[in-house]
Amino acid sequence: MIDEMDISEERKWLYQEYAKTVVANLQKRNMNAQYVSSRQEALSAVLEMIPEGVTVVRGDSVSLDQIGVIAELRKRNQNKVLDPFVTGADGSWSIEREQRERMHREAFSAGVFLTGTNAVTLDGKLVSTDGHGNRVSAMIFGPEKVIIVVGVNKIVKDVNQALERIREFCAPVNARRHYLKHHRVEFGDLPCVKTGRCVDCKHDWRICHYTVIIEGSMIREKGRINVVLVGEELGI
């Protein structure tokens, strides 16, 4: 019997069609890109791209946690892994701010930088926003290889839609995540945390100070940026 309420196959098909376009356009912009259907396949793809012996640093990314790559790297025990976002049992960050800052800076000389992005456009642009800037700056320059894990839910039509997604969804949800799960009480006063809406605030703890649009890589850096587009909803 056909279940008319289950449209999972139709959604999967549509995501795959979008993904084909995104992957092709990322490659035209001198970035490596591949589509995988699941987070399990994404984990395998990311691990295959990380050579033994290189230092791996991660940026803040829910997508990385969802595919389990940091835990698997530690289990594999072939790389020095720097994770500034280790948390304790209550969700609070376990590493002191000064040590986190050192790890952020070590990303610039790392062999691999792992992260996510806030949006990817159909024509192959990556749009990301940071409060501190450590993630977006390492995506642009420094690490020998950048691996970006992106769920298909982050595919948007163009840069304007990407910026709208960041303002209306990513920033409020991410700020509230830090407030609730990581006990960052200073974020509790942010307008987007209180109301769910962006007001383009000037708050001291605003988490969207730095917005970067990656439109591609120079030919001499071809393949430095590697995008794994995953056929599941991941991240924020």
Order of helices and strands: HEHEHHEHEEEHEEHHEE
Specify the helix fraction band: 25-40%
**What is the topology, as strand order, of the major beta sheet?**
1-10-7-4-2-3
Number of strands: 10
- The CATH topology of the domain at 8-155 and 216-230 is given as Rossmann fold
Rg on CA atoms, Å: 18 Å
Structural class: alpha/beta
Largest sheet: 6 strands, parallel
Mean pLDDT: 95
- List unreliable stretches of 5+ residues: none
Number of helices: 8
The CATH first-level class of the domain at 8-155 and 216-230 comes to Alpha Beta
The name of the CATH architecture of the domain at 8-155 and 216-230 is 3-Layer(aba) Sandwich
Kindly report the oligomeric state of this protein: single chain
- Strand fraction equals 15-25%
Name the overall outline. globular
Q: Give the distance, in angstroms, between the N- and C-terminal Cα atoms.
A: 35 Å
Produce a short descriptive summary.
The protein has 236 residues and is α/β, with parallel strands linked by helices.
